[in-house]
Write a structure and sequence with these properties.
By secondary structure, the protein is an all-alpha fold. The chain contains 15 helices and no strands. It has a single domain, classed as Up-down Bundle (Growth Hormone, Chain: A), CATH 1.20.1250. The longest helix is centred in the last third of the chain and has 39 residues.
Length: 399
């Protein structure tokens, strides 16, 4: 079996029905998620914003995702996973329509801010549910399953982006809104919370857990690099004299590579930090390729290389974080860790657009250098987390 057939790729007969339903709903939502890759380029080419203004608007979106994710974690631990997921998806749907129908930069910026406030609400409860539905040793593969399904949807999304983007970039946001509604409907119909998914009380403050803070620091680093590439890729395609909608083909290729790469996550629970370091090194190589690519085949090669490295930067870190918490605080821990993406979505577009204004190679080579530096630091982070995990156990024995 291979990761290309993720729902039945495990020796114990496959994944529980609720896991498959949750992953399917997220995949449906992912079919329209390509819209955010085009936010900056749409602001420039549709709404008439300057490159710098587009960077600030996308940064505003990223800043708004920080309280969004924290609210999602708090709501999930108090109200329940399922209703929180649905509320977040509905909020995203409405906000995307605001962007789609806005006549100018001001309305699009307001829609982006509203979208940011709703964008991450459904992430912590989704991740907590996934962690609680499977045994701890299977969590890296479960998060990898989610990544593979999202990538599979991303392959279709890339083609859809080419088709819709060729007509109007506004249609991308409409399509994303529709997929949010469809995903919410699937959650309501098929996903059920296990008994541990809604504990009566919450235990543990993630912001006082040194292990979580170490993971947050590492996660912020590679989230920043990933967001830099997300913003820069369609702008780079345009800078090379190609239609920005052609970015859809790059996303489709990256999705196929992400699916195939899931096979490397088997046994990831035993060596998550090694895989993270390796993933960062591969992403750096992809950045270097894109820095000088000027035709679609070479851009596809760079996108594929980055996608392969990113396989190891999603499942393993989330599995580590999920294992740091108990049932009553897991969504809160995942929400706190997930703020690394909000920080990156705030700073990444600003850095990306400013670096691109200097030169396309400058932006991509800066990202490559950052990934190499992070790859060198990840093993030290792994030792810090492991030592902190073992220390309480020794103290208990002594007592």
């Amino acid at each position: 079996m291979t990761a290309i057939m993720p729902f039945a790729s495990h020796e114990d007969g496959g994944w529980p029905r609720s896991v498959r339903a949750l992953v399917l709903a997220r995949a449906v939502n992912q079919l329209g998620a390509f819209a955010m890759s085009f936010l900056a380029v749409a602001l420039v080419h549709v709404y008439g914003a300057s490159l710098v203004t587009a960077g600030w608007v996308v940064a505003l979106f990223g800043l708004a995702t920080v309280p969004s994710r924290l609210a999602g974690g708090r709501m999930a631990d108090r109200l329940g996973r399922r209703p929180t997921i649905v509320l977040g998806l509905l909020g995203c749907s409405v906000s995307l329509l605001v962007i789609a129908v806005s006549p100018g930069v001001g309305g699009a910026a307001a829609g982006a801010a509203l979208l940011g406030l709703a964008f991450e609400i459904y992430e912590p409860p989704s991740q907590a549910l996934l962690a609680e539905m499977v045994a701890p040793e299977r969590r890296p593969q479960a998060f990898g399953l989610l990544g593979a399904a999202l990538a599979a949807a991303g392959a279709g999304a890339g083609i859809l982006a080419v088709l819709l983007g060729g007509v109007s970039l506004r249609l991308l946001f409409v399509a994303d809104s529709v997929t949010c509604l469809a995903a919410a409907a699937l959650i309501l119909m098929w996903v059920h919370e296990p008994p541990t998914a809604r504990p009566p009380t919450s235990h543990g403050n993630p912001w006082r857990d040194g292990r979580l803070l170490v993971m947050l620091g590492v996660g912020t680093g590679f989230a920043f690099a990933g967001n830099l590439s997300l913003t820069a890729l369609p702008l780079t395609v345009a800078a090379r004299g190609l239609d920005p909608a052609e970015t859809g083909w790059l996303l489709a290729v990256a999705a196929v590579v992400t699916i195939a790469g899931q096979r490397f996550l088997r046994g990831a629970a035993a060596r998550p930090f090694f895989l993270m370091a390796a993933g960062l090194a591969v992403v750096a190589a992809g950045f270097a390729v894109v820095a000088f690519a000027d035709v679609i085949p070479l851009l596809c090669l760079g996108a594929a290389t980055m996608a392969l490295g990113q396989v190891f930067l999603l499942g393993p870190p989330y599995a580590v974080v999920a294992g740091l918490a108990d049932d009553g605080s897991r969504a809160g821990y995942l929400a706190a860790y997930g703020t690394c993406w909000g920080i990156a979505q705030t700073l990444g577009p600003l850095a990306s657009t400013r670096l691109l204004s200097i030169g396309v190679p400058v932006a991509w080579l800066t990202g490559a250098a950052l990934c190499v530096l992070l790859a060198a630091l990840v093993p030290f982070a792994g030792r810090a987390v492991t030592m902190a995990e073992r220390r309480p156990a020794r103290e208990t024995v002594t007592a």
